[in-house]
Structures are given as C-alpha cells and as structure tokens.
Amino acid sequence: MAKGTNQGMRTTHHMIFTTRLLCLLLLCPTLFLGCSSYVDLSSSQMHIMQGNYDKAYQNLQMQAPSLLKAQGPIIVNYDLGMLARLNKNYQESNNLLSESERLIREAYTQSITANIASFIVNDNTKAYQGEEYEDIYLNLFKALNFLALGQEESALVELNRSMEKQALLKQKYEQYRKQVRDYASQQGLGGVNTETFAASFSTSALTNYLASLVAQSLGESSTAYYAKEQVKHAFASQPQLYRFSLPSSVEQSDPQEGKARLHLLSFSGQAPQKQERWEYFSVSPTNHAKIAYPVLVGRYSNVQSIRVKATGQEETVLQKIESISDVAIDTFRSKSELAKTKAVLRAMAKAVGIAIYDSVAQQDEKVTAAEELLGLIFRVAQDVSERADVRSTHFLPSEAWVGSIDLDPGVYDLEFSFLNASGRVLHTMTLPNQEVKLNALNLCETYYAP
Fold it and tell me: Phi first, then psi: what are they for 122, rounded to 5°?
C-alpha cells in the first residue's frame, strides 16, 4: 500500500516536472523578446544634434528594416515622419505620421476588445501600440506640416483632433485600470493594489495656441477666442506642468494698421526616454520576485532661452509655452503604474508554480539532480524573464517656445540665437528670405536639439 502511494507521488511529481519544463520552454521566447527590441540609432541622433537632418533621415531609412523588426511599424513611421518634416518634406511627413496614427488607433481598438487574459501578458510579447503623448503630439506636427504647405483648414482639423484625444485621456486610462482590476479579481488576487496615478494633463497650451492663430487667420473668431481662453485655462489648471509665465503673445492686441505679424515658434531639446526600473517584492514568506516596468526619464537640454532678430529690427525674446517632456512624463505615469501592477500579477502567477514545485519536492526524498536544476532555473527565470517594454518613438522635441514681431510687409532674414543658463550663445541659426505678408498667417519654425 505504501509502495503504491510512493509510486503515485513519484508519478505526480514527474507530471509536475514535465509541466514545469513545458512552461519553461514557453517562457524562453518571452525572455528573448524582452531583450531584442533595442536598435542603435546613435548615428541618426548625432546628425540631428549637428542639424544635418538630411543625413539623419537617410541614415534612419537604412536602419528602417531593423527598426521595423525590433520595434514595429508605429515607431518606424513616426520616426521617419518626424525626420522628414525636419528635412522639409512636409507631405511625405504627413503620409508617414498618418500611417502611424492609423496603426495607433487600430491597436487601441483591439486593446479595449481584447480578453482580460491577453491584456495581462508581458507587453514585450505584443506589437507596440503607441503612447498617449505620442498620439496627441502627432496631430500637432501634422498641423505644422499643413501650415508649411499653405493648407490652413487641414491644419485646424489636425489641431482639433489633438484636442479631442486630450479630452479622452481619462476615459482611456480608466479602461486600462478596469481590465487590470477584472483580471486580479478573476485570479483571486483582489488584494493587489490596482490604483494608478491620475494624469494632471488634460489641455495642451501649445495646441490651443496654434489653433487660435489658425482660426483667426481663417476668420473663425469665436473658435479663435475659445482656443485662446483654453491656453489660459491650461496654465491656470495645470500649474505642475506649466511652471512658467503665460507668454505675452497670447494676450497681444492686433498689430497696428499697415503692419503684419510674424509668429515665431521654436522647439528645443529631445523628449524623454523610456528606461527599465526594477523592484523586488514578497509574494510569500519564502519567496520573493523581481518585477520590471518602464518609466519615462527626461533628457537635459542646454537651451534656456531663445532670442530672435529680424533684419533692421530689435531683438525679440521667445517665451516657453509648453514642456513636451513634462506632458509626456505626466501622461505616462498612469501607464507606468499599470505596467507595474501587471508585472506584479504575472510574478504572483509564476510564484504559484514555484510554490507547487517546492511542495512536491519536499515530499520527495529522491529529487534528482536534473529536478534540482529545474527548480533553480525556475527561480532564475522568474527574475530574468521579466523585462520592461522600453520601446518608444525617438525624435520628439522637449520644449516649445513662442513669440511674435510686428513688421512692415516684406522679406526678412531671421537670426535665432539659442542660449544657455548663463546667457552664452550655444548656436545661431539664420533663416534667410522669410516673406511677411499683410493679413496672412505668417509663421516661422525652428528646432535645435542639443
């Protein structure tokens, strides 16, 4: 009788051994997927820092197949679109950004209809779906492309799309939270904290500022007034994101009779990068787990002020209107906390398997060396297989600055000077032959990455 019982225990043990081995084999692809998304884009980055956008674009085109395989079509189209616009290929840029936008929309539609179990898998095993800040600013840069092409009505459509997306942010994050809470409840893990940080961001001052300029040029005075009021609302309601004064150009009166207004827009720096963060937590008195989740980390820019001088005119100082970096970090905090919660739930599910193995092994006095090794592998795999999804687009700027100059209609050379905190000029950029027309939307845009 005892012999039969022992044999039964051994049979059970080997069944569990086989099951764990199969799980390990299934785990291996996930492990490798977590390490395979990196692509070295330092060459394109170097050309951008040097202001050689044509070289940057050509270099990224050569790397596009590798980037597509590692990080997916949303990132490839977005990155190429951003570099194409810097290279003044505005129509090509919009084609690329529109494709990225379509893929982001499809990915979100799939995510809200996906079953709960598929939602909780490691994000590295899924196609990249884009981040909310990437989606919001995509339309803004499409709008700037349309303005460069002289298509103001299309530009206003894009700005309105960006604002619509901003209004849906809280709804989207609540949907994500609900999926995590439902999964935790179904798995009997209701005690896991599934609350996340609420994003402070809801209104982009930059998007509304541009919308007010375009609407005014199109003769849509009520739309222009509303958008201008929204700029003020963005500063008043989101002080943690707008830690600087409202630009004086927001409240400017109309230019004097016979004068034309030249609007100045400049971008500086580079947007934050995703980094992997690790934490340990206890899943039982005898077992702990290491989880990984992504966070956005800002990149320092030397540019602390921008001055502009038009031919024969006094110098104008631009004022910051938006930190794209701050908005990105704020909107991503909710996603980061959700990724952390999902990692905890996955770790707890893995821990259950390890606990079963330990229980059986303790009952078996004849654990083989291979089985001991398997137990060790499972503990190592629990740590190694968990990798954060650090995929993201690469070429968004960090800060946006605005200003204006009232001029007689004509053609001017513009000199942009980018200064550091001590007032030293880091770089000077000259834009020759800028035409300023009466009763038209005159907008000049520059970018300096370092």
Answer: -60, 130
Cβ atoms within 10 Å, residue 25: 9
Cα gap 260→256, rounded to integer Å? 8
Alpha helices (H) along 240-323 = none
For residues 85 and 94, give the distance between their C-alpha atoms in angstroms, rounded to a whole number.
8
Instruction: Write down the pTM of the prediction.
Output: 0.85
What is the SS3 assignment for 177? helix
Q: What is the CA radius of gyration of the chain?
A: 27
Name residue, tokens 């997916």: 72
Residue by residue, DSSP assigns 56-94 as: HHHHHHHHHHHHHHHH-HHHHHHHHHHHHHHTT-HHHHH
Residue 127 contacts residue 100 (beta carbons within 8 Å):
no
Number of H helices, E strands in the chain: 13, 10
Q: Rounded to an integer, what is the distance from CA 130 to the centroid of its chain?
A: 7
Number of structural domains (the chain) is 1
Using CA atoms, how far apart are residues 364 and 361, in angstroms rounded to an integer? Answer: 5
Cα 24 versus chain centre, distance: 32
Quote the CA–CA distance of 435 and 282 in Å, as a whole number.
Answer: 65
Strand partners, 289: 281
Cβ partners under 8 Å of residue 115, min gap 6: none
pLDDT along the chain (450 residues), means of 10: 52 52 46 63 96 96 96 98 98 98 93 66 83 97 98 98 93 76 68 62 97 98 97 97 97 93 98 93 74 94 97 96 97 88 77 56 57 52 69 97 97 98 97 96 97
Q: In this structure, what CATH number is given to the domain that contains residue 63?
A: 1.25.40.10
Helix (H) or strand (E) holding 285: none
- Print the domain residue range for 141: 2-448
**Furthest C-alpha separation in the chain:** 107
* Cβ-based neighbour number of residue 223 at 10 Å: 17
Q: Dump the DSSP string for 265-284.
A: EEEES---EEEEEEEEEEEE
| Count, residues in the chain | 450
Say which residues have a Cβ less than 8 Å from residue 24's Cβ, sequence separation at least 6: 374, 377, 378, 381
